[in-house]
């Protein structure tokens, strides 16, 4: 028998943090597995945040609460231009509230839905920014473990920011391999599927999947069935269309190496010849709907 999920209560128009400071609820931004996201406006500072609001009722009876604590613990100290900024955290009897830097231009999912394959300069721009964000995380012994288009957000200046640390983990020893991952990452690496032990290389794999998807227009291992997709990931079966240049194909092949030890370290990704080709320093917001003309 299907068990009914308890319904989360409606969020009040004003929420208060531990010190009694009010935040005015604004636009609805979206809904995730456990969270609802709304704009939350701090009048004192005149800043609007993305408020990730998690109902405590929905967290009951599972290890979800520890996962939120883990997410907060990992995310709270991070500070980098390509990582969504964590501003604060509070709770009331109903909900947990996480205040995040607002990314009004949504995520790469919406950009991808609208535009399909991006132009190579845009792909290099996005990939390099995401790689910089990952490099910052790896330098702090953090593995994100769920890098995907939906977890790369865009601010008003079209700057890419990595968000959602719900599956992230911290490495304690240098040569440790993580054995478990509770959740289903979108661009899951073969060593995770094989339960062979995984580490930083899973983020490099996911970056390869992101680069491929942005450039080709469809994900490398996508099929109609998850089982078949997993079989292809395990056998490293994907095609690079002949229209993709050699420099891009080389990066894709190396990021998507079956053996995690053969993938480049995140700090070496930008050294590929592909990334010496023209890369804009900014992108106009018109890119959200139309391919830019680079002159
Ligand atoms: P999930 O549970 O799928 O990981 P999240 O809880 O991270 O999703 O986010 C839920 C929704 O809120 C998503 O649709 C996402 O686009 C939006 N969102 C999350 N973070 C931000 C942000 N910093 N700025 C703007 N929108 C955001």
From TrEMBL:
Keywords, A to Z, come to:
ATP-binding, Kinase, Nucleotide-binding, Repeat, Serine/threonine-protein kinase, Transferase
Q: What is its main location?
A: nucleus
GO BP terms: mitotic spindle organization
Q: Which residues form the signal peptide?
A: none
Q: Which GO terms describe its cellular component?
A: centrosome; cytoplasm; kinetochore; nucleus; spindle pole
Q: Where in the cell is it found?
A: Nucleus
Q: What top-level branch of life does the organism fall under?
A: Eukaryota
Locate the residues binding ATP. Answer: 52
Q: Which segments constitute the Protein kinase domain?
A: 23-275
Provide the catalytic activity annotation. L-seryl-[protein] + ATP = O-phospho-L-seryl-[protein] + ADP + H(+); L-threonyl-[protein] + ATP = O-phospho-L-threonyl-[protein] + ADP + H(+)
Reported EC number(s) for this entry are 2.7.11.21
GO MF term set: ATP binding; protein serine/threonine kinase activity
Similarity section: Belongs to the protein kinase superfamily. Ser/Thr protein kinase family. CDC5/Polo subfamily.
Question: What name does this protein carry?
Answer: Serine/threonine-protein kinase PLK
Q: Which organism is it from?
A: Mesorhabditis belari
Q: Which residues of the full protein are shown?
A: 1 to 295 of 475
